Amino acid sequence: MSSGYDGRMADSQSSVMITGGAGFIGSTLVRQWLEHERERVVNFDKLTYAGLPESLEEAAEHPMYTFVHGDVAEPAAVAGTLLEHRPTTILHLAAESHVDRSISEPPLFAQTNVLGTCVLLDAATKYWHSLAGKQREAFRFVLISTDEVFGSAAPGEHFTTSSPLRPSSPYAASKAAAEHFAQSFAHTYGLPLLIVNPTNHYGPRQFPEKLIPKMILAAAAGEPLMLYGDGLHERDWLNVEDGCRGIRAVARRGIPGKRYLLGSGKCLTNREVVNAICDCLDERLGNKESTRLIAAVADRPGHDRRYAVESAAPELQWQPEVPFNEGIVQTVEWYLENTSWIDAATASLG
Predict the structure, then answer these.
(1) Contact status, residue 251 vs residue 140, Cβ threshold 8 Å
(2) Where are the beta strands (DSSP E) in 110-217?
(3) Which string of DSSP letters, residue by residue, matches 50-109?
(4) How confident is the model at residue 349, as a pLDDT?
(5) Which position among 39, 45, 71, 148 bears the catalytic label?
(6) E strands, the chain, where?
(7) pLDDT higher than 60, residue 304
(8) Fewest 10 Å CB contacts: which of 22, 24, 48, 250?
(9) pLDDT at 7 over 70
(10) What are the start-end ranges of the E strands in 136-270?
(11) DSSP designation for 164
């Protein structure tokens, strides 16, 4: 895989700004960028409960890495960071992301995901207008959204780049609103914008409130595995390493003004995912029939039934590489072996 931007600036004097780089996807993206790309990485993160410095221990001492503690909803902090570090690319991942929390605390999601994105877009546009020549030509703003903005897919349906936005949850609505703001800045001011709609990521360092790590830790402890409803809700599960390779491909080879969907191409029901986790744990720990721990609870309000995307984009030269049956084994192993990270994540909840 090549490093740097195809036909664009790519050297140790330029930088990429990653918002939310202490989160699950963000921390993986930071590590990948430092390993494979040439730009300096500026990680701008508020360090909420789900943003853990422990996820960035490998990056912390890297000479091409800088951490900035800041909130995307604070204009002065964002503008100051842009002027000081002068990024060629902004990869915007900072967001509240847990659907259950969005149902109980919708205003928090509007504050970070909508207002925060608007503040960042405003600062980025002014910064971009201050650039000249090759720096101005090279600049990109990449918004990392979600497939959840499209709502629930019908059986056999796959969302495409032309699918309408029909968000169901407050989380999805906040991300759809962020997309609308971003597109308005591209249309009104000419901001070179790319939007990425990935499917459900999984892998190491995902906060334990999410389905896969939650089920791994509960099953390992012999606790009930609580599945919403009938457990037949379908998701396209994308390994986080593949997802971050895809984001890097969009930043390198994506065309401004386009939307890119990233998925594995294979849907699994939540029950199938939990069964796979149980099988891994039974083999790893010598347990017997961990699936007996599976129990049903009342379904989540407004729970989308199915997500699936069509991720064909030849110019990206990207495709997923990690099969789910391999990725889930690696993920289970990581959670069993990294108790100090789990302790830090649990402690962050207070």
Answers:
(1) yes
(2) 140-144, 193-198, 200-202
(3) T--GGGGHHHHT-TTEEEEE--TT-HHHHHHHHHHH--SEEEE------HHHHHH-HHHH
(4) 79
(5) 148
(6) 15-19, 40-45, 65-69, 89-92, 140-144, 193-198, 200-202, 225-228, 234-239, 259-262, 267-269, 294-297
(7) yes
(8) 48
(9) no
(10) 140-144, 193-198, 200-202, 225-228, 234-239, 259-262, 267-269
(11) P
Domains and CATH numbers, the chain: 15-206+237-267+304-322 (3.40.50.720)
242 is catalytic: no
Q: Which residues contact 33 (CB under 8 A, 6 or more apart)?
A: 16, 18, 39, 41, 248
Q: What is the DSSP letter of 45?
A: E
What are the structure tokens assigned to 169, written together?
Answer: 């949850």
Q: How far apart are CA 104 and CA 112, in angstroms?
A: 15
The pLDDT assigned to 350 comes to: 67
Q: Distance (Å, rounded) from C-alpha 196 to C-alpha 194?
A: 7
Please tell me the pTM assigned to this model: 0.94
Q: Which of 5, 171, 202, 335 is catalytic?
A: 171
Give the number of other Cβ atoms within 10 Å of residue 126's Cβ. 13
Which residues neighbour 330 within 8 Å (Cβ) at sequence distance 6 or greater?
A: 203, 204
CB contact at 8 A, 209 and 100: yes
- Confidence (pLDDT) at 322: 98
Structure tokens at 124: 């980025």
Q: Is the pLDDT score of 3 beyond 60?
A: no
Residue 306, classed as helix, strand or coil, is: strand
Q: Cα-flanking dihedrals φ and ψ of residue 322, to 5°?
A: -105, 110
* Residue type at position 150: F
pLDDT at 248 over 70: yes
Quote the tokens at residue 82. 């842009």
Q: What is the dihedral of CA 226, 227, 228, 230, to 10 degrees?
A: -130
| Active-site choice (37, 147, 179, 234) | 147
Contacts of 240 (CB under 8 A, 6+ apart): 24, 25, 28, 201, 202, 203, 204, 206
Residue type, 239: N
